[in-house]
């Protein structure tokens, strides 16, 4: 299945969506800015063992190139392709890129849009699950919290591991590497108020949830 991430990162959703809050963790080394109207309708679909990325632009006049980026956990991104004015189809308003070798399990994608003046902007995040494995539904409560938060997972016999805690900009703050039960309590009282990210692992797939500290 494929889709986009909402502000709570409930990744079982099967339809696409915008995710302006993703900017807090999707780009580790800089600050994202809001996507302009020139790039829209970004979707990812499964085509056999490949992933097909489709997006539209109102114009390509000011665009120098597109860079396609992929992530396994939504925190670390890697370039997997470029489209520039030298490509035959670049002038079209509709663009397509085929990832012939997607990762096993979850694949997160975004489009980097670079103007001729050097301005960098990003698309929404879209994802696709290449092995059709059901992903556990993880809920954090209370969220926001004042120092203690429960982790609740759906009834799933497979082990879910709490891997790590990341800061708002994607910096690693704490590692756990521990399995979680149906209701697991963690202490985050030492954290300053703000936005954080908890990373979980289910088999070979990663799930990231937003944590709000009052």
Descriptive notes:
The chain is an all-beta fold and 214 residues long. 0% of the residues lie in helices and 50% in strands. The chain is built from no helices and 16 strands. The strands form four sheets. Strands 1, 4, 5, 7, 8 and 9 form a six-stranded antiparallel β-sheet that branches. It has a four-stranded antiparallel β-sheet with strand order 13-12-15-16, with no helix packed on it. The radius of gyration is 18 Å and the shape is globular. It starts with a strand and ends with a strand. The model is unreliable at 5-37 (pLDDT under 50).
Shape assignment: globular
User: Helical region count?
Assistant: 0
Cα radius of gyration in angstroms: 18 Å
Q: Main β-sheet, in a few words?
A: 6 strands, antiparallel
Number of strands: 16
Helix content: under 10%
Mean pLDDT: 77
**SS-derived structural category:** mainly beta
The end-to-end span amounts to 35 Å
Tell me the quaternary state: single chain
Spans where pLDDT lies below 50 across 5 or more residues: 5-37
Spell out the helices and strands N to C: EEEEEEEEEEEEEEEE
- Taken as a percent bin, the fraction of beta residues is over 45%
Quick overview of this protein structure:
This protein has 214 residues and is an all-beta fold. The protein is built from no helices and 16 strands.
List the helices and strands and how they pair.
Blueprint: E1 2-4, E2 39-47, E3 50-57, E4 63-71, E5 78-84, E6 94-99, E7 106-115, E8 120-122, E9 126-129, E10 138-141, E11 148-153, E12 160-166, E13 172-179, E14 183-187, E15 194-202, E16 205-213
């Amino acid at each position: 299945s494929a889709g986009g991430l909402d502000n709570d990162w409930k990744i079982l959703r099967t339809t696409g969506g915008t995710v302006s809050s993703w900017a807090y963790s999707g780009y580790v080394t800089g600050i994202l800015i809001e996507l302009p109207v020139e790039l829209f309708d970004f979707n990812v679909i499964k085509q056999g063992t490949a992933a097909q990325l489709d997006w539209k632009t109102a114009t390509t006049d000011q665009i120098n190139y597109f860079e396609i980026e992929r992530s396994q956990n939504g925190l670390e991104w890697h370039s997997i392709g470029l489209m520039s004015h030298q490509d035959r189809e670049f002038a079209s308003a509709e663009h397509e890129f085929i990832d012939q070798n997607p990762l096993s399990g979850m694949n997160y994608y975004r489009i980097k849009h670079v103007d001729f003046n050097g301005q960098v902007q990003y698309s929404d995040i879209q994802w696709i699950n290449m092995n059709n494995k059901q992903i556990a539904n993880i809920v954090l409560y209370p969220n926001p919290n004042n120092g203690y938060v429960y982790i609740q997972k759906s009834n799933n016999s497979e082990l879910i591991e709490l891997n790590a805690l990341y800061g708002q900009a994607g910096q690693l703050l704490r590692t756990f590497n521990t399995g979680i039960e149906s209701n697991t309590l963690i202490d985050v009282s030492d954290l300053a108020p703000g936005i954080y990210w908890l990373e979980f692992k289910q088999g070979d797939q990663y799930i990231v949830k937003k944590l709000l500290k009052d």
